[in-house]
């Protein structure tokens, strides 16, 4: 397949200067936005199928504020509001043919922090690798990958229960020993392609829920 035939899923996070979202809220919102599209693609079923059929699940996170955000919202897509975060997921597009108002948005500058105590995590929990430094935008894309792998590994009844719970996820950073154990436990693991920030093949996230153990080949 030529590079021009590859598809990418655009995600846009709203980052206003005065009111940036909490980092964890943004990561969870990105994962929930991906799940929303997988669960109910609506009119974008064809684009979603074309994207997934490439064998890649590339996602790119860009940031917007003010008029940029309003232009992004005017394009086809779906906005997920989650606590302090707003993330808009757009239908997949060819890698080299983004809508102009999305293509002009910046990828860099998604440095977010958490200002307070995190609420207790509830499964599914998307565990970040504590040994990797990732920008918020990179981590949002990786959390989206983890949520997608967890969705694929869930059966119809498990997806229905997840849907009934609002397709929620928790995103947390694992302890080093715990992360290695989960990688070896047959859970969905994200191994990065290495396009940006980190080395190819790095394990970035593990998706953890009681029903996911043993669902994938052990490392």
UniProtKB/TrEMBL annotation:
EC supergroup of this enzyme: hydrolase
One Pfam family here: PTH2
Alphabetized Gene3D superfamilies for the sequence: Bit1 (3.40.1490.10)
An annotated Gene Ontology molecular function: hydrolase activity
Top-level taxon of origin: Bacteria
Catalysed conversion reaction: an N-acyl-L-alpha-aminoacyl-tRNA + H2O = an N-acyl-L-amino acid + a tRNA + H(+)
InterPro entries in UniProt: Pep_tRNA_hydro_II_dom_sf, PTH2
EC number of this enzyme: 3.1.1.29
Transmembrane segment boundaries: none
Keyword annotations of the record: Hydrolase
tRNA processing as UniProt keyword: no
Designated name of the protein: peptidyl-tRNA hydrolase
Organism expressing this protein natively: Nonomuraea guangzhouensis
């Amino acid at each position: 397949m030529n590079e021009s035939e590859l598809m990418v899923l655009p995600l846009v996070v709203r980052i206003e200067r005065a009111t940036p979202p909490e980092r964890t809220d943004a990561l969870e919102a990105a994962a929930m936005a991906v799940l929303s599209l997988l669960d109910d693609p609506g009119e974008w079923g064809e684009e979603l199928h074309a994207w997934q059929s490439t064998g890649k699940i590339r996602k790119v996170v860009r940031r917007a504020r003010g008029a940029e955000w309003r232009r992004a919202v005017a394009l086809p897509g779906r906005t997920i509001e989650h606590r302090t975060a707003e993330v808009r997921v757009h239908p997949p597009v060819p890698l080299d043919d983004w809508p102009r108002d999305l293509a002009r948005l910046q990828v860099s500058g998604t440095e977010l922090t958490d200002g307070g105590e995190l609420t207790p995590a509830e499964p599914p929990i998307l565990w970040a690798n504590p040994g990797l430094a990732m920008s918020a935008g990179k981590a949002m894309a990786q959390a989206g990958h983890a949520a997608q792998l967890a969705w694929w590994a869930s059966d119809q009844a498990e997806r229905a229960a997840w849907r009934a719970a609002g397709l929620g996820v928790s995103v947390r950073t694992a302890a080093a020993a715990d992360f290695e154990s989960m990688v070896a436990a047959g859970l969905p693991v994200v191994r990065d392609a290495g396009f940006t920030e980190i080395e190819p093949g790095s394990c970035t996230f593990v998706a953890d829920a009681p029903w996911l153990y043993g669902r994938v080949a052990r490392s």
